[in-house]
Design goal:
Blueprint lengths: L1 E9 L5 E8 L5 E5 L4 E8 L5 E3 L7 H6 L7 E2 L5 E2 L3 E4 L2 E4 L8 E2 L12 E4 L3 E8 L10 E9 L4 E10 L3 E2 L3 E2 L15 E4 L1 E7 L5 E7 L11 E2 L9 H4 L5 E6 L6 E7 L5 E7 L3 E5 L7 E2 L5 E2 L6 E5 L14 E2 L4 E12 L1
Antiparallel strand pairs: 1-2, 2-3, 3-4, 4-5, 6-16, 7-10, 8-9, 11-12, 12-13, 13-14, 14-29, 15-28, 17-20, 17-22, 18-19, 18-21, 21-24, 22-23, 23-29, 24-27, 25-26
Length: 344
């Protein structure tokens, strides 16, 4: 196992940005940026040993700064959407920065994806730390956050999240990597299995309505493995509204560590298994990726990548029957998600 680093330019504020590379003896490498605590690349060998970069990203910090797709970034304080950019804790209402119409998406205009984190190299990974001040994007309390990426010898990338606040607040952290196990093209032929028997219904603003619906007998069903593209164009309102999948799946096992999903590219044999202790996972099929250039001049388009975002349910503060994302003063937020890679 080796960890190295190199300069990655300067952001618009003139701060130096650094890229950190973790490499194991099996030919797996993970490149991380202290800008957004971002996963810039994950290179894994396919069944023939050919190195394949399986996540979308960019070659320069300038591209990340204008990026509105959140490629590879840590999302906070709250992943996904908050209706009308406001919530209430103990009778006090907090008004947030709306950046998605009247709603807030992924923590606001200057969420954790736009912050420069402090990085510390370890033997098998990199630890990123961030202090989010009281009032950041409207959220209460000073929140201290740590995200630790660790790569093991078998090719599993473990992401550990910790956070503590000096006031009651919301804390719902995730990673927003877009996976393409083929290294290019679209992800419609990728085969996916999700270990969830239900999902949260969305309204036209991609906000959960509060209804938890069974996937059985609908195009939302991934309990048996199928290609992402098989039903993506089905005449089904939940898919028509968004041009594909952008839905939270209710994972089995609540807050226990479990297998959430298995994604595979049959052409090269690369397989990704997602483990998490979160109650939900957002399946996003890259419906809004606009045509533009990515790493190594790759052409990115709609469906170029798929996100598997482990999380609390979106819009959770509106519904008492959803698991609560409130982090109380003096308590610790802790979460683990593992991206495990293999090829056959």
């Amino acid at each position: 196992m080796a960890v190295s680093k190199r300069p990655f330019g300067e952001n618009a504020r003139g701060d130096a940005v650094t890229e950190y590379i973790i490499t194991n003896d099996s030919g797996v490498s993970v490149a991380l940026l202290d800008y957004g605590a971002t996963i810039r690349s994950i290179v894994v060998p396919d069944r023939n040993g050919t190195p394949t970069d399986v996540v979308l990203g960019y070659d320069s910090i300038e591209e990340y700064e204008k990026n509105n797709c959140y490629f590879g970034a840590v999302i906070g304080r709250n992943s996904n959407r908050i209706e009308e950019a406001r919530f209430e804790i103990n009778g006090t209402q907090y008004v947030l920065e709306p950046n998605d119409g009247k709603n807030q998406l992924h923590g606001g205009f200057e969420g954790f994806d736009k912050k420069l984190w402090k990085a510390t190299c370890m033997e098998d990974g990199v630890c990123f730390n961030l202090e989010s001040p009281d009032g950041d994007q409207g959220f209460p309390g000073r929140l201290e956050v740590c995200v630790l990426y660790r790569l093991n010898s078998s090719g599993a990338l473990e992401i550990n999240y910790w956070a503590e606040s000096d006031a009651n607040t919301i804390c719902n952290l995730t990673n927003h990597s877009y996976f393409n196990l083929a290294g290019g093209g679209d992800i419609l032929s990728h085969r996916l299995q999700i270990f969830a028997g239900s999902y949260t219904e969305n309204n036209s603003e991609c906000l959960p309505t509060g209804h938890i619906l069974p996937v059985g007998g609908t195009p939302m069903d991934f309990t048996d493995t199928k290609t992402i593209g098989r039903d993506i164009d089905a005449d089904f309102e939940q898919l028509r509204m968004f041009g594909g999948y952008d839905h939270n799946y209710v994972l089995r096992g609540d807050f226990s560590m479990k297998c959430a999903a298995i994604l595979k590219n049959p052409q090269n044999g690369i397989e990704l298994t997602v483990y998490t202790d979160r109650p939900g996972m957002q399946l996003y099929s890259g419906n809004a990726i606009y045509p533009h250039k990515g790493k190594n001049s790759a052409q990115y388009n709609k469906y170029s990548g798929v996100c598997l975002e482990t999380q609390f349910f979106p819009n959770a503060m509106r519904f008492s029957h959803f698991p609560s994302p409130v982090l109380r003063k003096g308590e610790f937020f802790r979460s683990v998600t593992i991206f495990a890679f293999a090829a056959d």
